[in-house]
Description:
The chain is an alpha+beta fold. It contains 9 helices and 10 strands. Strands 4, 5, 6, 7, 8 and 10 form a 6-stranded mixed beta sheet that branches. Strands 2-1-3-9 form a 4-stranded antiparallel beta sheet. Strand 7 and strand 8 (145-148) form a beta hairpin. Helix 6 runs antiparallel to helix 7 (225-240), helix 6 (204-219) packs parallel to helix 8 and helix 7 (225-240) crosses helix 9. The longest helix has 16 residues, at 204-219.
Amino acid sequence: MTQQTPIRRVALSLAAxxxxxxxxxxxxxxxxxxxxxxxxxxxxxxxxxxxxxxxxPAPCHAWAAATTDSAVIVSPSWAAAxxxxxxxxxxxxxxxxxxxxxxxxxxxxxARTTLPATRNVPTTRGEHWIYRGAMRSVNAxxxxxxxxxxxxxxxxxxxxxxxxxxLPDAVRALAAKQPPTVRPAxxxxxxxGAGGGECRHRTPAYLERGIAMAEQHITEASSAVHAxxxxxxxxxxxxxxxxxxxxxxxxxxxxxxxxxxxxTARHCTDAWTNARTRLGL
Length: 281
């Protein structure tokens, strides 16, 4: 039997109790998709509506790679990722859990006065409060607070302390105040000619290829993710920002790619706004 690394042993222990793990590399981000899944050419899980597992044998599509199947976790197709992993992530929603990610002292103080006590796990900058029950994931529900459950991943930082409580209505209410999908502000482009929304100087296929390449560039970033996201947004806007071909759907795809690398909705919005400002849009 192949000797297990400490990180993979943690993953197997999580899988054994029904918590689906996945490998994370430096920066607490998932590994890039395999060659067949690059740019979501395979139609992978992040483009789908249901929070199911990825069908690829490699650990692709971030949270969708998480699995409780020990045979997959120790399979040769996952071996390289485990060798390069620095920590273990997990899909809370896949285990019927919700993580309230409190990113700073103010957020922790708010939670202590607002939410019922539950299992608590210290993080680098704050705390994870873990509740029993799944819901949709929403970033930035209030300053310093993200909700990670279905279709999201969290870093595993140990079992924590305290008794796990049921997911309270107060947490569900935070998500209910947010739109169903994290989207940028509506994109106000320059007026288009006839054909509205179609790029006047390029074909629709060129736009689609450009968006797919931008998604791939972001998801394959191995370092300097913030800078990569900003430069990619800038490149897309410099090409298509004035012709009216970009839609909210295109921009949301870019935001989704950035968030799969660990960027928050706030970081995405800031990077997009800064790129528009630099280009005078």
